[in-house]
């Protein structure tokens, strides 16, 4: 997990309301968001993460369910968790998408 950028598949994630609530209360009460990620090249391998924070949300289209998200999370690696910035393209309706993890 030491490459500059890593692309993962989002196989499950939160509802639209959970995303909005997590942003609304980002600096007050933490609302944990749970996404499930797998590697593009090995879809059965789950990537563990924690402490997902969404700082930017843009509507991806006019449906109100597709979003461009940006924020921070910790990714499980050898020896512990590594902080990463991310950019994600996510459909709250299908609960699927793609996330690109970047090094700081």
Give structural notes.
The chain has one domain (5-102). 9% of the residues lie in helices and 54% in strands. The protein is built from 1 helix and 7 strands; from the N terminus they run E-H-E-E-E-E-E-E. The protein has one helix spanning 16-24; strands spanning 5-12, 36-39, 46-47, 49-59, 66-77, 80-91, 96-102. A hairpin with a 6-residue loop joins strand 2 and strand 3. It is globular.
The largest sheet is:
7 strands, antiparallel
- Backbone shape: globular
Strand order of the largest sheet: 3-2-1-7-6-5-4
The helix count comes to: 1
The residue ranges in which pLDDT falls below 50 over 5 or more consecutive positions are: none
What is the typical, i.e. mean, pLDDT?
A: 89
Rounded to an integer in angstroms, the radius of gyration calculated over CA atoms is 13 Å
**Which class best fits the helix and strand makeup?**
mainly beta
Distance between the termini: 13 Å
In total, the number of domains comes to 1
């Amino acid at each position: 997990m030491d490459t500059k950028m890593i692309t993962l598949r989002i196989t499950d994630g939160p509802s639209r309301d959970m995303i909005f609530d997590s942003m609304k209360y980002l600096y007050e009460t933490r609302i944990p968001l749970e996404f499930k990620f797998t590697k593009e090249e090995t879809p059965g391998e789950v990537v563990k993460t924690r402490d997902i924070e969404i700082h930017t949300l843009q509507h991806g289209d006019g449906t109100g369910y597709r979003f461009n998200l940006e924020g921070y999370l910790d990714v499980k690696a050898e020896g512990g968790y590594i902080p990463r910035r991310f950019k994600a393209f996510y459909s709250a309706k299908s609960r699927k998408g793609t996330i690109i993890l970047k090094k700081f």
